[in-house]
Amino acid sequence: MTLPLPFSRPLATLLAALATTGAALAQDTPPNIDPAEFRSCLNELRATPAFSRITPATYAQHTDGLAADPTVLVLLNRQPEFTMPVWDYLAVLVDDERVADGRAAHAKWHDTLQKIEQQTGVAPHIVIGVWGVESNFGQNLGGRPLVQSLATLSCFGRRQAYFRGEFASALRILQEGHIPGDKLVGSWAGAFGQTQFMPSTFFRSAVDFDGDGRRDIVDTVPDALASTAKFLQNAGYRRGEPWGFEVRLPAGYSTAGASRKAKRPIAAWRAAGLTLMDGSPLPDSVPSAGLMVPARGGPAFLVGRNFDTLYSYNASENYGLAIAQLSNLVTAPPGMPVGFVQAWPTDDPGLSRAQNRELQTLLLARGHDIGTADGMIGARTREAIRAEQQRLGHKVDGRAGQRLLGALRGG
Ligand code: CA
After folding, report:
1. Is 217 among the domain residues?
2. How much is the pTM?
3. Which of 174, 182, 206, 269 lies at a CB distance of 3.0 to 4.6 Å from 202, suitable for a disulfide?
């Protein structure tokens, strides 16, 4: 699945909240929608070819009396104020909690994952990595009714043609009885279930693995895991190949122009002097790979075809790297640190979810009214962070990082 828009998934929304530093902007006010205009749009849509598979009864059942949700139009237009550094994404998406949850899920679903690998070639730890990053192992599915969001986006705002196709696919999921209407909830843009598929992706990749006749990626874990594997298989996943590995570059090696897409035979990289981090020769398990350097001076990776399938899940190299690293850690020896061998080029690394909660607890203790310490850095937490950064003489950017956490721990 190609992520249709930035920040359209629950975890991505959380991260976008971390990246947005400003106070509420004028564009955050939902537009007024005329109910008659929405009704007229829905009546016109019904007759268009995109909805040819939807019966009049299904259409009426799910759209009669439906109100538009103008808040999705705010989210459609929201832009992050700065690009979050890759180390902040990784700190939240691959932390000790998610690794522990991933190890437990890997053990719990072992037999199912083995069968899925036999059928699709996709390794169990890779499926677990996607599951953990996409929906926190089914715990973070998003709560917006898909039909309402997609109907609104089909009638107002940009990209209406795209969302009409997704709206029609959502109705088809309901018509075919795969998922009950009250369970078809997700992100504002329509990604839903444990795999965070868009409705059109559902019809390309969702699998009925438990054989009950329904492709239920919301409440049936085997269906969700098999659907993730099917998606990766459709994207060209190659059985038995690792996604890639962290590599050591020879001294003075220029990474200018490094690209995941510029694949070369592994022998060529070996000849150029690249090794594994312990100095041993690059293995032949990945026949050809591209050099990916997310931040100059930080960790470098040789990534193969299977990394590209992880990329295609979210159209983001940072998300792909989070999935890849999480998948490595769920099968690593216990106690393996969550970072890479090479440190990120920063003196103020990002915070895990546990550290975000600790930071919030310290802010509460200093009298900031930020609600509960839930690990989600929202507007009020950012405001409190800015106040403390000002007091401490730090750079005032509202970012939750190790430097501020360390200063607040010290009183
Ligand atoms: Ca099923």
Report:
1. yes
2. 0.91
3. 206
Residue range 72-103, pLDDT digits in tens: 999 998 876 556 789 998 999 999 999 999 99
Q: What's the burial of 160, exposed, middle or buried (CB within 10 Å: 0-12/13-18/19+)?
A: middle
Ligand 1 centroid distance, CA of 220 (Å): 6
Give the domain range for residue 374: 353-409
- Same domain as 229, residue 362: no
Q: How far away, in angstroms, is 246 Cα from ligand 1 center?
A: 38
In this prediction, residue 5 has a pLDDT band, given cuts at 50, 70 and 90, of low
Q: What is the CATH number of the domain that holds 77?
A: 1.10.8.350
| Boundary (domain end) residue, out of 180, 210, 234 | 234
Distance 179 CA to ligand 1 centre (A): 10
Cα–Cα separations (whole angstroms), residue 155 to 42, 52, 77, 197: 8, 18, 15, 22
Instruction: Give how many domains the chain has, as a whole number.
Output: 2
**What region, left, alpha or beta, does residue 179 occupy, with left being phi > 0 and alpha being psi -120 to 50 degrees?**
beta
Residues 229 and 372 placed together within one structural domain of the fold: no
Distance CA 167, CA 132 (A): 27
